[in-house]
Amino acid sequence: MHMADALIAPAVAGTMYAASAFAAGYSIKKIKEEDEFKKIPTMGVMGAFIFATQMLNFTIPGTGSSGHLCGGMLASALLGPFAGFLTMIGVLLVQCLLFADGGLLALGCNIWNMAFYGCFVGALLIWKPMMKNGASRAKIIAASVLGSVITLQMGAFSVSLETLLSGITELPFSVFVATMQPIHLAIGFVEGLITAAVLIFVQEARPEMLWGVAEESKSAKLSKGWTLGVIAVIAAFFGGVVSHFASAFPDGLEWSMEKVAGTTELEAAGSAYDTAANIQDATSLLPDYAFASGNGGTSFSGIVGALVVVIVVVGVSMLIRTNRKRAQK
Amino acid sequence: MSKIQNNLREVKKLNELQQREGILNGLHPVVKLVTTILYILVLVSFPKYQVVPCFVMCIYLILLFSLGDLSIRDGIRRMKLILPLVCVVGIFNPFFDHTPITRVGGYVLTGGMLSMLSLMMKGIYAVLASYLLIATTSIEDICYALRWFHVPKILVTVILLIDRYFFILGEEAGRMMDAYKLRAPKQNGIHYKAWGPLVGQWLLRSMDRAEMVYESMSLRGFQGEFRYGKRRHFRWRDFVYLMAWVMVFWLLRFTNILEWIG
Prior knowledge:
heterodimer, A: mainly alpha, Arp2/3 complex 21 kDa subunit ARPC3, 2 domains, 12 helices, 2 strands, B: mainly alpha, two-stranded antiparallel sheet, about 70% helix, globular
């Protein structure tokens, strides 16, 4: 779900940076208020742990394939939403720098799509209310699956929305959403199950490590049937929503293919084509290689200029490399 | 070789590149960070049909990859994570946008084709620009630059700690997976019955480690403040580097320099 720099417009990137910075500022304020400086090394080690865990493959039963952990829900269930959010920011930045997973400009979007929903929505609106009367295996499974599925769905929807607002893709919004949501439904489900497995182990070994769980943990009860019910409702709800969108997908594609097949439409595109052809005639040096007018180099002279600049730079670079090799000898 | 070992090797390689002595490595981290962000900002701000000026933005990469003696192949290899989404988003543009923009040798190039091309270029260039930054600037220096911009010290400390402990925990994960594979051969990943115990045990060990880290840091006087690399002063070459690139980006983005040259 990591967004690349190429997929966003500067205005969208700036807005998402501002939103993420606001959430980060609020989280820092809360940590300072609670005087939780002790948490800083834990956040660092936990971030490194999540980062390393993301590289493990988990076998998905009955499929032969494997999934991996994203970690937002896990971080907030152990550190709380505020420390968890800051930890995830660190993970996303290091991921972006070391492995090019995401981009520097898209970092604000990625923080919002993956860390904000996972930590704030997942922890404050799902995990905390479900754990307020104590934790149990069934509750942990329900909260982890529900949290992961919902927050990943929100994140995937945000990716589609940010791409749409950036005006990058010509893909209709409904088709893009219909592609993104089902993929992330499956990812969220697997993420939820892995998170639940780890948190159940922690609850059995050291229950005090779980965030937001009330003391009367032992009295907490949530039947297996209830848990399966929650999971079934999630699956049915998202299955319904997704299938509604998905039904639009082949239609959209068929429509586009039909359009592509009708090649004569390119010849008869009307005024835009005529305008482009007129400008092309007016500016072209070589008739079949002329470009329509535009800013900075979409004309023939622009292309020649571009080639000159690139060739000069390539030449200078080759000189630098040759000189270095000579110096090394 | 496992994914963890591959990633650790990649990080080791980056660390080696960062430690080298060179023109780019010696520049002030603030200047390098600002230039990289400016470059990406200008790059993505080109209108979707403006393929030519967008293409010319490669001069920044060509020149700096040469100056920094970096391998473009290594940079391109980093595309593997981000390219699929860029492709999915861009590949449909030709099907939906039929606006004729130009004609090359009798073929009509539509807006969709050009926007797909510019999207791919932007995707590749942005990744290469980030690689250029991280291959010549350590995370410590980037943290120093972030502090220079008054990014809160809690956040910067967490980033620094993640970077430092990733290697330790990554190696631990690698050993753990090797041991697991020896006990459970021919498995595509961790069996679901081991999800909790295997990762959970490791998590508890990591949390104990965090406790020890905190105690050690407290004994050394840690009170929320951390040292972020050595203090550096701006030099003339830093200003020249920044101003030169600002000028180039401005010329390419806001003037018709290419047409004048052509």
